[in-house]
Amino acid sequence: MEKRRLGNSGLLVSVVGLGCNNFGGMKQSLDTEGVRRIVHAAIDAGVNFFDTSDSYGQNGGSEIALGEVLSGGLRDEVVLATKFASPLDREKTTRYNGSRAYIMKAVEDSLRRLKTDYIDLYQYHFPDPYTPIEETLRALDDLVHQGKVRYIGCSNLAPWQIMDGWWTSKHHNLYGFISHQAEYSLLERGAEETLFPVLDRTGISLLPYFPLASGLLTGKYRKGQPIPEGTRMSMPRFQARMTEERLEVVEKLIAFAEARGRTILELAMSWLASEKRVASIIAGATSPEQVRSNAAAVGWKLTPEDLAELDQITGK
Predict the structure, then answer these.
(1) Which residues face 188 on adjacent strands?
(2) Interstrand relation of 12-14 and 16-19 (parallel, antiparallel or unpaired)
(3) Which of 5, 30, 37, 53 has its CA 20 to 30 A from that of 311?
(4) What is the pLDDT of residues 106-159, one digit of tens each?
(5) Which CATH class is domain 3-214+272-299?
């Protein structure tokens, strides 16, 4: 598995990562034994980047399950990333919280659940509209100096907020964000116009989530065919993503891949891997087979001609 440098740091991450949103014991999510099988399959496939959050699963269940599995001698083999700012008691508050008081408690809770004394990448999950970015960064800087956190990243920030954080860390000589998580895929390319200029200016790496466009790039959803039961697109909140226009593009992408003896999954993952700004592709999995499939899917080296044709297909 290819390893890439995360931002301007010395941290090397596998080009395919493991998203752990399915862990944690909630309905339709994995229990600890299911997590154990997936984690072992990922490590065997060369995946070393594991991405979770304190808000994934029930009552921090994703961190709990992952910590239980990694504590069996696997902790030092992985780059462990988690997130803060999305309170677990969301029924009581809708505020995303980046305050110093919140961060200092959240990190201790995550360390306890993950059964570790350090977090490799601690990420600001959603921006807090009430807390100045300097307060957030100073708290994170203290955690790095304390050895509880090694590097910091962010997620779901607007481009101007990333630049604000970058300037603030430079101006005050604080540790800054080395990565940013955003949705990016063959079907969702808005980041190229809005986010890429910021990444180029700051040296921050992109960690794309929803790389398969919530399953549309797996080949399981076809134009004119019923939605398979039990899939993500069978849920009402995801069906807005499955437009006729997108399904038309999907059919063209399937034809492109099949004409070259490949699958649309290989196309989606290898296309992301061809982007120099991408450090690791956050791909979720619910089985060891899916982990192995995701890991193997980046082996296709697309040519400049391939990329140009894909730009035409996707309207770029």
Answers:
(1) 185
(2) unpaired
(3) 5
(4) 999 999 999 999 999 999 999 999 999 999 999 999 999 999 999 999 999 999
(5) alpha beta
> CB neighbours (10 Å) of residue 27?
5
Determine how β-strand 16-19 pairs with β-strand 49-51: parallel
Integer angstrom CA distances of residue 9 from 153, 215, 274, 279, 280: 11, 32, 21, 12, 14
Q: Give the containing element (helix H, strand E) for 280.
A: none
**294 neighbors 20 (Cβ within 8 angstroms):** no
Q: pTM value?
A: 0.90
Amino acid identity of 113? R
Spatial CB neighbours of 103, under 8 Å, sequence gap ≥ 6: 84, 136, 139, 140, 143
Q: Which of 56, 96, 122, 184 does the annotation list as catalytic?
A: 56
User: At 143, is the secondary structure helix, strand, or coil?
Assistant: helix
Alpha helices by DSSP H, listed for 54-186, are 61-70, 100-114, 133-146, 159-171
**Residue 257 corresponds to which tokens in the numbers above?**
């891949």
DSSP string, 100-133: HHHHHHHHHHHHHHHT-S-EEEEEE-S--TTS-H
pLDDT at 27: 47
118 is catalytic: no
d(C-alpha 8, C-alpha 234), whole Å? 41
Query: What is residue 214's predicted lDDT score, i.e. its pLDDT?
Result: 82
Nearest to 28 by CA among 66, 61, 68: 61
**Distance from C-alpha of 15 to C-alpha of 223, rounded to nearest angstrom:** 31
- Write out the DSSP string of 25-54: SSTTSB-HHHHHHHHHHHHHTT--EEE--T
Taking 70 as the pLDDT cut, the residues of the chain under it are 25-29, 88-94, 221, 223-240, 242
